[in-house]
TrEMBL record:
Signal peptide: none annotated. GO terms for cellular component: plasma membrane. Keywords: Antiport, Cell membrane, Ion transport, Membrane, Transmembrane, Transmembrane helix, Transport. Belongs to the CPA3 antiporters (TC 2.A.63) subunit F family. It is a multi-pass membrane protein. This is K+/H+ antiporter subunit F. The keyword Transmembrane applies. It is found in: Cell membrane. PANTHER family: NA(+)/H(+) ANTIPORTER SUBUNIT F1, NA(+)_H(+) ANTIPORTER SUBUNIT F. Pfam families: MrpF_PhaF. GO terms for molecular function: sodium:proton antiporter activity. It comes from Chromohalobacter japonicus. The chain crosses the membrane at residues 6-22, 34-57, 63-83. Its main location: membrane.
Length: 89
């Protein structure tokens, strides 16, 4: 039963990533594209954690943690660049 639920959730998160990729490519404005990219980070973290549960390896959880940190820092940097025009003051 758990295996079936994992397969369904992996498929749904993969579809969500594809839809986020569409929003990144076609988004009407730059903030919409940044938000879609941030949502894609969150979906990829969930997908990696689900793969880690499915395969039973701990390294996937460490990879998800690294992607979460990089996603947060990059989102903050891009938003700061949009607001001020420079990342480092």
């Amino acid at each position: 039963m758990l295996d079936f639920a994992l397969k369904i959730s992996v498929a749904l998160f993969a579809i969500a990533i594809v839809l986020n990729l569409y929003r990144v490519a076609v988004g009407p404005s730059l903030p919409d594209r940044i938000l879609a990219l941030d949502t894609m980070y969150v979906n990829s973290i969930a997908l990696i954690v689900l793969f880690g549960i499915w395969l039973g390896h701990r390294t996937y959880f460490e990879a998800a943690l690294l992607i979460a940190m990089l996603g947060f820092v990059s989102t903050v940097a891009v938003c700061k660049y949009l607001l001020r025009g420079d990342i480092i003051e």
